[in-house]
Amino acid sequence: MDHREKLAGQPAFQRFEKLTGMRLSEKELEAYEQRAKEGGMSILELFDRASDTIERNMARAQEAKRRTLH
Asked: Long-range CB contacts (< 8 A, 24+ apart) of 43-52?
């Protein structure tokens, strides 16, 4: 079973792909899994944290844009 099959249907993974618009290759998923292991977490925790960071940054950018326009 490859990484994509293992992650299919997992909310953290789906959220990450939706936010980034990326469809990660098997090699990229292997790299993410390795990074997660090095950080002492699961790949799903890594995707969840990355998605949180993306959402925070998007909110900051939206707020900055709003302030600039007003």
From this structure: 43/3, 43/7, 43/13, 44/7, 44/10, 44/12, 44/13, 45/12, 47/10, 47/12, 47/13, 47/15, 47/16, 48/12, 48/15, 48/16, 50/16, 51/12, 51/15, 51/16, 51/19
pTM of structure:
0.85
Burial of 54 by CB count in 10 Å (0-12 exposed, 13-18 middle, 19+ buried)? middle
pLDDT band at 69 (very low <50, low <70, confident <90, very high): confident
